[in-house]
# Entry
Amino acid sequence: MTEKFYPGYLSDIEGIKVGHAQNYDALTGVTVIIPDKAVKCGVDVRGSAPGTRETDLLKSENMVDEVNAVVLSGGSAFGLEASSGVMEYLREREIGLDTGFAKVPIVVSAVIFDLSVGNANIRPDFKMGYSACENVSKGTGMGSIGAGTGASVGKILGNKYAMKSGLGQASMQFGELKIAALTILNAFGDVFDSERRIQIAGCYSQEERKFLDTLKVYENLSDYDAFKGRNTTISIVATNGKLSKVQLNKVSQMAHDGYARSIEPVHTMFDGDTIFSVATGGVECDVTFVGSMAARCISRSIANAIYGSEDGGDLKSFKSLKI
# Structure
């Protein structure tokens, strides 16, 4: 099915590197994005069940406007511990905000809930976060890798009808301007390839070999606690454009349109959907254009997360179901 992939990787943006660490027995992992030097960063949190670290720093009215790393992790709130390993890796290399007493690495993070797949007692921790930093490279992997190792989608009827998901990436170029996205797709809802206008994942009946429309199933539900807080899609957009933190907050906001085009429903009470945006600077650009194309990159990375996923736990993937 490789012919279905959209092109590109986050590391197509010069100065951006990606590292992964994962436990394939427990089906969980960490993805870390480390720039060659501190970069401007913004964020937009739309889901109502987020698990995040240091996102308040990125509010437009607050002082810090650059970060040294972005961490995307499995493990639900437990997975936030992986950021401490990233902090230590950067501290050892004297990377961080110079306070006059110590250099404090600025590390922002978001997590997904993957405890329902694999072993819930093993979560990303300090050691796994550090290991992801040691593995930093051009980061061309997709599918069941890093924070996408335990990702799944279409969970309204539980794991019996859910599908395996993973990590997806995509990039686009317009003259000298480059825009890229990396997504950990762990949505409550159904997933669509928005450009090809087809459903590619979601709540799926293997017996009937067909998708079950999540919103139609929702009409007849009475027990909403069965899937409360067990989801979340998280992403990072990167560009070589010259943008401020305030502008990158707007890019993150606009990039959520990619979620809306590709996931239904999205931004629910059961998801913690979060998008970071970083800019390495150097290329003059228009924030509205970058935000618009970021949304398209996000949609492509969502599709690639499904096309690249492998079976995991009791969950079947796009590839094995031959959708």
Notes: The chain has a mean pLDDT of 95. The longest helix spans residues 287-307.
